Amino acid sequence: MQITKMNTQYDLDEHTVFVVNELVGAHALPIIDFLKDKEKISEFIIAEELGLEINETRNVLYKLLEHNIVMFLRKKDRIKGWYICYWDFNPTMVPHLKHKILVEKRAKLQDRLSAEEEGQYFICRNACSRMTFETAVEQNFKCSECGQIMQEQDNARTKEFLRERINELDKQVKAAEPKRKVALEAPVVVKAAPKVVKATAAKKKPAAKKRK
Ligand SMILES: [Zn+2]
């Protein structure tokens, strides 16, 4: 996908950029940027306007849909007889997704910190490997890469770094607490997933008819 625009070139708020980057990737930003002030835009228009292949466009839209960042409406084209999806950006999901991402990041860091606090780590002098005490014993305290003797690592700085990051995330999580309590498992989530499958299946039908 040829998207060279920087994040800052999109007229999107930082929360949206963060959520889209984290959950789908920067390549999805042009689509959100394009959809944001519009209503029910056909995927063909999106592809055409952004100079993307239709399949690429759909793949990104489905990824966005998995997180309910977009919503769609499927309509049968009366002339062509096939189904077209019309898409909308769903900004109400952004605060909830942001909060969820931060909570998950914090949990991961907490797990890492716990592992650092409980374990004893060994590191190669050439820094090619790092392992737990158990693995080091299995390898006779020799680096599997270069054969150097492994040394016990002082992980005080790692722990300190992780604690700082966790504190920082605590603040971010608090700040990102959504004002409106909408469950992430709102009906949109439940409905959205199976629809994607139907939409793809339905797209194939008219093509099959044509061949007859
Ligand atoms: Zn080594």
Key words describing this protein structure:
three-stranded antiparallel beta sheet, elongated, Arc Repressor Mutant, subunit A, single chain, alpha+beta, 212 residues, binds zinc ion
Description of the structure:
With 212 residues, the protein is of the alpha+beta class. It folds into two domains: 113 residues, Orthogonal Bundle (Arc Repressor Mutant, subunit A), CATH 1.10.10.10; 82 residues, no CATH class. 54% of the residues lie in helices and 12% in strands. The chain has a three-stranded antiparallel beta sheet with strand order 1-3-2. Strands 5-4-6 form a three-stranded antiparallel beta sheet. The chain is elongated. Zinc ion binds next to loops.
CATH topology of the largest domain: Arc Repressor Mutant, subunit A
Q: In terms of structural class, how would the helical and strand content be classed?
A: alpha+beta
Shape: elongated
- Share of helix among residues? 40-55%
